[in-house]
Write a structure and sequence with these properties.
By secondary structure, this protein is an alpha+beta fold. It has five helices and four strands. Strands 1-4-2-3 form a four-stranded mixed sheet.
Length: 188
């Protein structure tokens, strides 16, 4: 009995030691998680550096089953989501350069079509979220039209809370789901 207990103790300590070693390996990956959250420049309407554009297209190819979009000369067409603050449909000025780039592309390519899909987070009633998502999509459409996109090339659709990017029940998920996406239905 004593021998079986000793063997069980040795096996358990070996397993726990292996787990601790694995944990130490993961902890020593030199990933700095302190400081402010860093945001991809394209998400705030800034030009995307060339070194990030290639990686972004490669990641899109792996995730999406659709044909990857070509970048325009400014490189801003990679910015296809516009994010909103809680309970509002007001556009932030940070997204203006990206919306101008989309409008310029549509104006120069009369056969191209986009659909603006408005989204909301899970908080609020279904009816309220659908109205808020529609208002977000309409505001993005209005901005693109004011920048020269032909009206007939920009459609809107409200998805409400039905297509979340993140499914969590926290501020990070809600912030990611308060958006309007520019979806190219047809390109030239």
């Amino acid at each position: 009995m004593m021998r079986a207990t000793l063997i069980a103790t040795l096996i358990l300590s070996t397993l726990l030691g292996a787990c601790a070693t694995r944990k130490d390996i993961i902890a020593n990956k030199n990933i700095d998680q302190s400081g402010a959250l860093k945001v991809h420049p394209g998400l705030i309407g800034q030009p995307v550096p060339p070194e990030l554009q290639v990686a972004n297209r490669m990641a899109t190819n792996r995730i999406s089953t659709e044909t990857p979009m070509k970048l325009d000369e400014a490189g801003l067409r990679t910015q296809r989501s516009v994010y909103f603050d809680y309970n509002t449909a007001d556009l932030k000025a940070d997204y203006d350069p990206a919306l101008k780039a989309h409008a310029r592309y549509l104006a120069n390519n009369p056969k191209a079509r986009v659909r603006i899909e408005g989204n909301a987070d899970e908080r609020g009633s279904v009816g309220y979220n659908n109205k808020l998502a529609l208002k977000r999509a309409e505001n993005v459409r209005g901005s693109m039209i004011s920048h020269g996109a032909p009206e007939k090339q920009v459609l809107v659709k409200s998805l409400g809370e039905s297509k979340p990017k993140l499914t969590g029940h926290n501020e990070e998920s809600w912030a990611e789901n308060r958006r309007a996406d520019v979806v190219y239905e047809r390109e030239e």
